[in-house]
Structure formats: C-alpha cells, structure tokens
C-alpha cells in the first residue's frame, strides 16, 4: 500500500487532503503541530496521527522513524505546513519575518533534508512542496509570506536538479485562493504583530480585516489541492510544477507576458 506523510493537517488543505487520500485507500500519516489536535483527528477517523512541529528537527526525525518502523518505507512526503504573516514590510519587525521563515522555509527544508537520504536508500520517492501563486507574483502587504514562497521556489528548483536520475521526484504546488483557515490566521497575525493604529497603511489593513472570504476571486475548495496530490501519487513521473486555481493560471500567465511596471499596476489593484 502506498503511504504518504502530510505536515500541517490540523485544518484546511492538509486536513482535506488527508481525508480525501485516506478515502481513496492510501495510507495517510497525518501530522499536527499541537498535541491537542491528535484526538480531534482520531475522532474524525484517522488511523495514523502524529505530532510534528516542523520547526523541531527531532520531531521530524521521530515521525520518519515511526513510519519506517511500521512500513519500512516512505513513498510520498507532502510539505504542507505553513502560515501567512500579513503586514507591510516597513511595519514588520525582523523577528516576525524570521518566524515566518522558520516554519515555511527552514521547517520545510529540514524535513526535506531528512527525507531525501531515506528515499535514496529505498530507491524511490516523491516529495511535494507547497508553494503558492505568491511564489510566482507578489501582493501588497504580504511581503513575509511572498518572500517565504519565493524561497521555496528556489530551493525546490535546485533540489530537482540535484535529484535528477535518482527516481525521487519533487513537485511544487502553486496554489491560489483556497477555502481554509489561512486567511483567518493571517489576519490574526496582522493584529498581533503589526501596529495598525500607527501605520501609514492603517486604512488598507482595516479594509482587509473587514473583507469577507467571498470577496476573494477564483476561490476554490481544498479538495482541488487533494486531487492534485492524488494525481502526483498515481503518476509514474509526476510533473515538477502544478498550478491550482484559475487565479494561479491567470497571474502566472500575466507574469510571463507583461512588463514589470504593467504587472505591478494590476497587482496593486488586487492588493
């Protein structure tokens, strides 16, 4: 039976993907950052739930060792865990940028660094890196998140070259707006870590905080991501990159054909 380890399964895309794949008969090891979420997922019918904070190398190692002790292999590793720190760069203290990178970039890198030798030894494997449309283009007020996803793009493109001929495939997901708790958590981070009241961007922040999910164009349900992950699992040679949502296709296309100045004008309207 094919198995997969998914990071960040407490809510949203990770949870939806884990549910979908388990229903499809794939052995899912769903991991969660908070111990309190283990029972929640078990109550939902998940058979294999493990604690994993991707910022802790020892927890990554423990998950890998557990799965290997049960199955003797890890077929697919999905680096899904991440969050968004909202706020203009001039309002963002460097420590919060560092926190963003600790999870989105360094945690992903540490998990990848630990899983590659395992897959080399077993002679096969698939690694899925969750980037974003914001790894292709940037939006106003999302600098920390934009930067983390651009970093993921560079790391993944390099890793793919380094794994050429190894029978280990690396795929990157450029996901656009998808129904999850991502926006709610980003707005919480905005309120916690940004001095909104004294910012030149106060009006923009308040507008963002009052916006409804329905205001986001081209939004899709999380099942869209789950189906792409299934496609990667089933593919003999998965593609290196998958666009998810119409927003990603549109903005990815505009990035290729428009001048930087013209694209900036469009992105400012979206921000």
**Helix percent band:** 40-55%
Strand order of the largest sheet: 3-2-1-4-5-6-7
Highest-level CATH class: Alpha Beta
Give start-end ranges of low-pLDDT stretches: none
Question: What is the topology?
Answer:
Elements: E1 3-6, H1 12-23, E2 27-32, H2 36-43, E3 49-51, H3 57-71, E4 76-79, H4 94-122, E5 125-130, H5 143-162, E6 168-175, H6 182-193, H7 202-210, H8 223-234, E7 241-244, H9 246-257, H10 260-270
Parallel strand pairs: 1-2, 1-4, 2-3, 4-5, 5-6, 6-7
Helix pairs in contact: 1-8, 3-4, 4-5
Describe the structure.
This protein is α/β, with parallel strands linked by helices and 271 residues long. It has a single domain, classed as Rossmann fold (3-Layer(aba) Sandwich). 52% of the residues lie in helices and 13% in strands. The chain has helices spanning 12-23, 36-43, 57-71, 94-122, 143-162, 182-193, 202-210, 223-234, 246-257, 260-270; strands at residues 3-6, 27-32, 49-51, 76-79, 125-130, 168-175, 241-244. The protein has a 7-stranded parallel sheet, sandwiched between helices. Helix 1 links the parallel strand 1 and strand 2 (27-32). The radius of gyration is 19 Å and the shape is globular.
